[in-house]
Design a protein that fits this description.
Length: 273
């Protein structure tokens, strides 16, 4: 419970919705006339942003009408992208402020009929067995220590013949990483495992591998390009709205960790047996 509270505290910045709406106005956007792409600078809380979400969507082969559970989906950037592709998405997140903000933004872009938010733990999902056609995770498992239970819960709620699509940060061969990073200001709430260990664990939970690839080089190139282009003053919209004043240091540490092989970025798709 102490770790859960620490993780929720790390992410739960108060006034997030108001900060995003103010950023939209400063960027010349009308908060009452938005589409999902208008939010992409701040609601895709993962390396390579919206492009990575679209890439994983293509790899997964998800179709319109399918029921998707976005585990640790934050304020809903990927969920709204999937909804625009016709999926029905439930975002499950431990951070209440993310759920409130995500629901409000989803209403503003006109996708509330396809995206809903549930505030709960991924280790005790409030869903029936086989409730979803697919589970989706993007940079959301780094704070979960009990990965055995996490993937058991994912396997439970995904129907047989469904799938798991993931884009995750894992431990590199030169671990541990440098802190702070976006998912943890301190090591005590960061729980990374080596890719092969995660790969075996998912297979043991009844998933058959379809795609597995290390996208660390692409992630590092993307991040270095953005760090180099960062203006002296932060732009109206960006991940600094979620990360706070340490955003720059956190992102530089991610780049350093990738460059030193302290972390790895894995894209994968599995079919549920």
């Amino acid at each position: 419970m102490e770790t859960t509270a620490a993780v929720a505290s790390h992410y739960g910045k108060q006034g997030l919705l108001q900060a995003i709406l103010a950023g939209l106005r400063a960027a010349g956007k009308d908060p009452d006339r938005l589409n999902a792409e208008d939010l992409a600078a701040c609601d895709h809380f993962h390396l390579r942003g919206r492009d990575a979400t679209l890439e994983l969507l293509r790899l997964s082969g998800l179709r319109a009408g399918e029921r998707v559970l976005d585990v640790g989906g934050g304020i809903g950037g990927p969920a709204r992208t999937l909804a625009e592709a016709g999926c029905s998405v439930t975002v499950l997140d431990l951070t209440e402020e993310f759920c409130r903000t995500g629901a409000a933004l989803t209403e503003r872009v006109g996708l509330a009929d396809r995206v809903r938010f549930r505030h709960a733990s991924a280790l005790a999902m409030p869903f029936e067995d086989g409730a979803f056609d697919a589970a989706w995770t993007q940079h959301s498992t780094m704070n979960v220590e009990d990965k055995e239970r996490l993937y058991a819960e994912i396997a439970r709620v995904v129907r047989r013949g469904g799938l798991l699509a993931m884009h995750e940060i894992m431990a590199g061969p030169a671990s541990p990483p440098h802190f702070p990073v976006p998912w943890a200001a301190v090591p005590e709430i960061s729980f990374l495992r080596a890719p092969e260990a995660v790969r075996r664990l998912i297979a043991a939970r009844g998933f058959r591998e379809r795609v597995w690839r290390d996208s660390s080089p692409a992630a590092l190139a993307w991040l270095c390009e953005r760090i180099a282009a960062t203006p002296a003053s932060p732009p109206p919209l960006g991940l600094h709205l979620l990360l706070g004043p340490a955003a720059g240091e956190m992102l530089r540490n991610v780049a350093r960790n990738l460059d030193e092989s302290r972390i790895a970025v894995i894209e994968a798709v599995f079919d549920r047996d």
